[in-house]
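Lecture 7, part 2: worked example. A protein chain together with thiamine diphosphate.
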Amino acid sequence: MANQTETIQKLSPAQLEEFYRQMVFIRRFEEKCNVAYRLGKIGGYMHTYVGMEATAVGFHAALKQNWDYVITAYRDHAQPMLMGSDPVAVMSEIMGRSGGLSRGKGGSMHIYDIEKGFFGGWGIVGGHNPLGAGLAFAAKYRGEDRVTLCYLGDGASNAGVFFETLNMVGLWDLPIIFLIENNEFAMGTRLEYHAADTELYKRGLPFGIESERIDGMDVLSVYDDATRIINKVRETSKPHLVEVMNYRFLGHGAADNDRVLYRSKEEEDAAKLRDPIVKLEKILEEQGIMDRAKMEAIDDELSEKVDEIYEAADASPFPDVSEVYDNVYSDIEPEKGH
Ligand SMILES: Cc1ncc(C[n+]2csc(CCOP(=O)(O)OP(=O)(O)O)c2C)c(N)n1
Ligand SMILES: [Mg+2]
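Predicted complex, written out as C-alpha cells:
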C-alpha cells in the first residue's frame, strides 16, 4: 500500500472528484432503492451496497473499461453502473420493468450488461465462482489480456464450489482476481460464527494463489492496491486472491432486521465512524481539493439525478405476459456478447 500523499499526488483533482461523485451517487441510488422497496415499488429480494462503496469504486477505476470482465453475486447494483451501464436501465431492472437490463425479468439480483463486460448478478451463494473461472479461461484461451474480477462475500468463501474453483484456477493459472468482500456478515450471522478461520485471504494459499488482505474503507488505498493487483494479473496471467475488509451499514437485504440477531447499536455507530464517504470528504478538505460547500452541491446534484432516474424507471412498463418464456434458456443473443 502506497502512502496517502503519494496516491493523491498521482491523481488529478478531477479524478479525486470523480471518486467522490461515484461513491455519493451509489450511496444515494441505494438509499432510493430502499425507499422504493418500502413503498412496494420493488419486489423480491434486494441487497444494497451502502458502506461498501469504496471497494467497487477503487477497483473499477483500475480496470480497463469495455475490456475486462466482472462477475458478482446478488449485491450487484453498483458494479454495472461503474462499468457504464445506463442507471435508468439498472433501476428499471430492480423495479421489474421492461426497460431493465434483463428486460424486467431478473430483478435486483440478476443484472447483466454483457456488452460492457458485466456478467451478473447471481443469487446462488458461491455459484458464480466457477463462471468467473470460465470467463478467465475464455480470455486466456483466446490470447486476450482481459482480467476477470470475481466478487464474492465472506459467507460465500465457505462454499465448497469456491474451493473447487480455486483449485482449477491455481492449476490452470487463470487471469482472475477473487475479491472477497469481508463485510463481517453473511446473511443472519457474523464472521466469527461462520468461518473456522476468519483470515479469509488464506483460502487461496493451498492452491498456490498469491493472496492478501487490504483495507476496503479508504477509496485511495483501494485504488492503489487494485491498480497493483490488476496490472500484475494482466502481466503474469496468474490468479490472485484479495480479501477486502469493508462493512455493510444496512441489513443483509432490504427486508432484514439485522440488529436483533447479530449486531448491536453500539457496533453500528462505531462502524459509521469508518464511513468511506466521510473519510474521503476529510481527505479532500484537508488537502484543499474540495470544500464543504462544493461537496454539498455535488450531493444535491446527485440526489436530484437519482430522483430523475427513479422517475424515468417508474415510467417504464412492466414486461408483457406474452414474453414470459422468452430468454429463459436458449434464445440468448450471442451476437451481442463478447
Ligand atoms: C447456495 C445458497 N445458500 C444459501 C443462500 C441464502 N443466502 C443468501 S445471501 C447469504 C449470505 C451470503 O453472505 P456473503 O457471502 O458474506 O455476502 P454478503 O451478503 O455479505 O454480500 C445466504 C446464506 C443462497 N442464496 N444460496
Ligand atoms: Mg458478507
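The chain has a mean pLDDT of 94. The beta strands are 69-71, 148-153, 176-182, 210-215, 240-245. Keep this in mind for problem set question 3.
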